[in-house]
Structures are given as structure tokens and as C-alpha cells.
Write a structure and sequence with these properties.
By secondary structure, this protein is α/β, with parallel strands linked by helices. The chain has helices at residues 10-19, 29-35, 39-50, 65-79, 91-102, 115-123, 133-138, 143-156, 171-180, 189-194, 199-216; strands at 2-6, 24-26, 55-59, 83-88, 107-112, 128-131, 162-165, 184-187. It binds erythose-4-phosphate (E4P). Residues 6, 26, 28, 110, 130, 132, 134-135, 166-167, 186 line the site of erythose-4-phosphate.
Length: 225
């Protein structure tokens, strides 16, 4: 499962990259608004930091297929290879996906709340389909179950489209889909940090340090042997 950061704040992106094996960054207009600043400059700084080989997902803002196609062509031309054009899974969006995928563009179908939206996105040529796990949970529909259903639909219909699960709010949602072997998950920094935040781990590591220091002296490590 690929692991991406769902944020545009460069400081938070750098802080997560420092410790974790990350495959790229996803954004949407709301994430860019929260970040503030000029969206083009923010995205360019992210691309510069993550490098050309990492995945960057950038969403179109237009609402008609024709305009989505124009925006979609400009996004990878601006931010380079491995830039995915995020297109909302609306009727206009499906039309744009078909046109852009026919021309070989990388596409992430976003704003997916139902399995049949994902089916239509896959059939329209999307490389990734992004179900909004927590938002679906909030509708009482079961975000993890919906995502598993999408994975089954893709497998049973022979689609190469991968899932890019999004909108996570807790570790359990991430773990359930990691276990199921989905293609990718995009996760906000605080939820990524929550995957390993555990007082038992902190205490166990502190005990190891304390015991070694009792044996060899304060501040000593195996480098002092
Ligand atoms: C993916 O990039 C989605 O746009 C994003 O995960 C939605 O997350 P939210 O439900 O926290 O807004």
C-alpha cells in the first residue's frame, strides 16, 4: 500500500517525510485554502521538496468537462511527471476522465462516496479512485466496507484502477484497509503520527535507555564500547 500525505503545509510535510516512508502528497482546494498562500507556489514548493519521482495529486476546480480537460492538461505540464489530475466523480468529471485518459494523462477520480461511482471512474480510465472513508462513515454507510466493496468490484471486473483511500480520521480505518491490501492511502499528518503514538512504546524505550545507563553510565550508548 502506498502511503501519501493529505496536506499542503510544507512544514508538516517535511516533518512527516523526516521519519516515515512516504510515496507522495495529495491536495484538494480545501486543503490549499487551509494552507493559505498562492496555490501555484505552494504546489511548486511541495513538488520541489518531494522530488520528481514522488506522486503529487492536484485537483481541478472547474465544473464542466471541457474546462476540466483544459485544467487537467495544464496540471502535469506545470508540476511534472508523476502528477495525477484529481477529477471529481461527477457526470462532467467522467467525461473529462475519458478524454484525458485517452490521451495518456494520470487521473485520480475523487469525491467517491459509493461503489458505483468508483466503477464508473474505473471504466472512464482513472488510475486511482479515492473513496472518502470517514465522510462515508459519517453518513452511516461504512467507509471501510464501501472501500472493500470497491476493491472487489475492481478485481472482479479486471480493472487496473487502484484505490487511493482518503479522508481518514483514525488508525483503525487505516489498518482495516492496509490489511485488505488496497493500492494507496492518503492520510493527514496527525493521523499518520497517531499510527505509532503509544505510551507503552515510549515507556518501553525509556526503560531500555535507563537500564543501559545504569550499566554503563549516563549518556552512554553502544558507541562507547
Ligand atoms: C483526498 O485528497 C480528499 O480530498 C481528502 O482526504 C478529504 O478529506 P476530508 O474528509 O478530511 O476533507
Amino acid at each position: 500500500m502506498k502511503l501519501l500525505i493529505d496536506d499542503a503545509n510544507i512544514a508538516r510535510i517535511k516533518a512527516i517525510y523526516k521519519y516515515y516512508p512516504i510515496d507522495g502528497v495529495t491536495t484538494n482546494p480545501t486543503i490549499l485554502k487551509k494552507c493559505g498562500g498562492n496555490p501555484h507556489e505552494v504546489l511548486a514548493e511541495i513538488r520541489d521538496f518531494i522530488g520528481r519521482d514522488a506522486d503529487l495529486h492536484v485537483q481541478v476546480v472547474s465544473t464542466t468537462a471541457e474546462e476540466m480537460i483544459s485544467e487537467g492538461k495544464k496540471i502535469p505540464a506545470t508540476f511534472g511527471k508523476n502528477t495525477y489530475i484529481k477529477i471529481p466523480s461527477t457526470p462532467e468529471g467522467f467525461a473529462a476522465m475519458q478524454a484525458l485518459s485517452a490521451d495518456g494523462y494520470l487521473i485520480t477520480a475523487t469525491a467517491i462516496y459509493t461503489p458505483m461511482q468508483a466503477f464508473l471512474a474505473a471504466k472512464s480510465g482513472a488510475n486511482y479512485a479515492a473513496p472518502y472513508v470517514n465522510r462515508i462513515d459519517n453518513l452511516g454507510a461504512g467507509g471501510v466496507e464501501t472501500t472493500k466493496t470497491i476493491q472487489n468490484i475492481f478485481r472482479n471486473n479486471g480493472f487496473t484502477t487502484q484505490i487511493l483511500a482518503a479522508s481518514f480520521k483514525n488508525s483503525q480505518q487505516v489498518q482495516a484497509l492496509c490489511e485488505y491490501g488496497i493500492g494507496a492511502a492518503t492520510i493527514a499528518p496527525d493521523v499518520i503520527e497517531g499510527l505509532v503514538r503509544n505510551a507503552c512504546v515510549t515507556s518501553a524505550v525509556a526503560d531500555f535507555t535507563k537500564d543501559f545507563e545504569k550499566l554503563c553510565g549516563e549518556g552512554k550508548t553502544t558507541l562507547d564500547f
